[in-house]
């Protein structure tokens, strides 16, 4: 019922069964090797955005999901879920 809204790119490695860091590293290394073998310079930058979600404007996020064609009922489900999240730091 929701699979058409929950798909992800084939190059996403996190949160997928059977895929993880080693596959992502292999893909990155293969891409670098290919570019170097064909005479290209490769520049790589890494960015840790683990805390970025705390800074997201949730109103804009959910508005964008509706604009992208996500059904209102599914957006409402996500919104309800996020409204009930609680984080505690020890």
Mean pLDDT: 84
The number of E-state strands comes to: 0
Q: What shape does the CA trace take?
A: elongated
Structural class: mainly alpha
CA-atom Rg in angstroms: 18 Å
Distance between the termini: 39 Å
Short description:
This protein has about 90 residues and is mainly α. The protein contains 3 helices and no strands. The chain has 2 domains: about 10-45, no CATH class; about 50-90, no CATH class.
How would you characterize this protein structure?
It contains three helices and no strands. It has 90 residues and is mainly alpha-helical.
Topology:
Layout: H1 21-37, H2 58-67, H3 72-83
Please tag this protein with its features.
single chain, 90 residues, mainly alpha, 0% strand, elongated
């Amino acid at each position: 019922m929701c699979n058409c809204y929950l798909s992800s790119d084939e190059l996403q490695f996190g949160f997928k069964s059977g895929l993880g860091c080693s596959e992502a590293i292999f893909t990155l290394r293969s891409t670098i090797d290919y570019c170097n073998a064909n005479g290209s310079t490769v520049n790589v930058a890494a960015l840790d955005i683990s805390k970025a979600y705390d800074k997201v404007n949730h109103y804009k996020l959910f508005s964008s999901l509706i604009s992208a064609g996500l059904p209102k009922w599914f957006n409402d489900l996500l919104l309800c879920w996020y409204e009930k999240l609680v984080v505690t730091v020890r």
